[in-house]
């Protein structure tokens, strides 16, 4: 797909001897989808019953999608099978990897460590073919620090996934926007864990600090009403209310989507392919090669041209857009078809 996109770009550029129009392109890519100030991901570990019988309905009613990191050996006893997990996937939640047996990965030999990752992936992908498993959460949160044992774990995790979540490995409860100083950074993503020790003010305060910093807040839950490290259902409901109250500032999405957005956005660029009296054609590209994985829409902000915009399309599909002051905002996918902006009448 990447090669096809580049070939299409080259052919179009060669077919246009000169640009009859010269609309200057001034743009930015929003740090988070929709131009929101910050991002948040609600995640669950271990596949406990209350996550699906208590938390999932509340998430669905609120219109939030999150991430369920499954320990696959726990599933038969906790859920009586995969029915509720499939329902979560069908509702748009991410189903992700938390190993087969929740063993401390730093204590395992290489072959056993690999088996914990690969066998869980195989089972999830077999049970839910539509949900390709792309992210991982370290059992006990151990894997995100710089110790030799945890760096060794990451060398194996990086072979199977595009990113991984640890717990409480930063002083602040969120990941600052510029956390990704290397590829390894996407495998040391921090999360704030909630349990019976959590105070009612914790989530609102942590969300507000995330919004002020423009960062990414990832929260980890285990038991909801039952299981271990329990958060009561009423307390979880109040946590969701805190998210609801901040929806204008927060992009709330599964772990994998936010990770993709952050990485794509920071290696993407927009350029003019062609222009005539009726259309202005742009190309959005990034440096990531596998377009079956790196396909998260990005929010583009382009300075309003001197002519009105009639419509925006990518691959023949109409793209919703809005004007905010002197900037047009719309979402497009990198390394796909060109973005065609249709000019309106004078």
How does this structure look, described?
This protein is of the alpha/beta class and 346 residues long. Helix content is 31%, strand content 23%. It has 9 helices and 17 strands. The strands form 4 sheets. Strands 2, 3, 4, 7, 8 and 9 form a 6-stranded parallel β-sheet that branches. The chain has a 5-stranded antiparallel β-sheet with strand order 10-11-17-13-14, with helices on one face. Strand 5 (135-137), helix 6 and strand 6 (163-165) form a beta-alpha-beta unit. Helix 2 runs parallel beside helix 8 and helix 5 packs parallel to helix 6 (148-160). The chain is globular and about 65 Å long. The protein starts with a helix and ends with a strand.
Order of helices and strands: HEEHEHHEHEHEEHEHEHEEEEEEEE
Structural class: alpha/beta
Number of helices: 9
**Secondary structure: number of strands:** 17
Distance between the termini: 37 Å
Helix content: 25-40%
CA gyration radius, whole angstroms: 22 Å
The average pLDDT value, as a whole number, equals 93
The 3D shape can be described as globular
- Range of strand content: 15-25%
Low-confidence stretches: 13-19
The biggest beta sheet is recorded as: 6 strands, parallel
């Amino acid at each position: 797909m990447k090669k096809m996109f580049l070939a299409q770009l080259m052919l179009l550029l060669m077919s246009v001897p000169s640009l009859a129009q010269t609309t200057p392109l001034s743009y930015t890519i929003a740090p988070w989808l929709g131009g929101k100030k910050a991002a948040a991901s609600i995640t669950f570990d271990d596949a406990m019953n209350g996550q699906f019988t208590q938390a999932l309905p509340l998430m669905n009613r609120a219109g939030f999608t999150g991430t369920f990191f499954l320990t696959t050996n726990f599933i038969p006893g906790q859920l009586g099978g995969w029915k509720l997990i499939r329902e979560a996937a069908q509702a748009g939640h991410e189903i992700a990897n938390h190993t087969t047996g929740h063993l401390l990965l730093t204590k395992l030999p290489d072959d056993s460590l690999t088996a914990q990752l690969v066998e869980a992936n195989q089972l999830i992908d077999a049970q839910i073919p539509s949900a390709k498993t792309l992210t991982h959460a370290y059992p006990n949160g151990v894997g995100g620090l710089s110790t030799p044992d945890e760096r060794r774990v990451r060398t194996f995790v990086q072979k199977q996934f595009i990113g991984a979540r640890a717990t409480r490995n930063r002083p602040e409860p969120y990941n600052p926007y510029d956390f990704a100083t290397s590829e390894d950074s996407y495998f040391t993503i921090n999360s704030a864990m909630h349990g019976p020790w959590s105070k009612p003010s914790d989530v609102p305060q942590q969300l507000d600090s995330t919004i002020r910093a423009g960062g990414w807040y990832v929260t980890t839950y285990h038991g909801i009403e039952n299981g271990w490290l329990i958060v009561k259902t009423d307390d979880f409901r109040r946590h969701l209310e805190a998210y609801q109250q901040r929806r204008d500032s927060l992009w709330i999405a599964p772990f994998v989507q936010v990770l993709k957005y952050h990485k794509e956005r920071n290696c993407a660029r927009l350029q003019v392919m062609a222009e005539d009296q009726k259309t202005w054609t742009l190309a959005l590209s990034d440096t990531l090669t596998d377009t079956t994985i790196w396909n998260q829409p990005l929010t583009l902000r382009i300075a309003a041209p001197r002519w009105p915009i009639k419509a925006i399309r990518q691959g023949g599909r109409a793209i919703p857009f809005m004007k905010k002051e002197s900037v047009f905002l719309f979402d497009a996918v990198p390394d796909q078809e060109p973005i065609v902006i249709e000019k309106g009448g004078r």
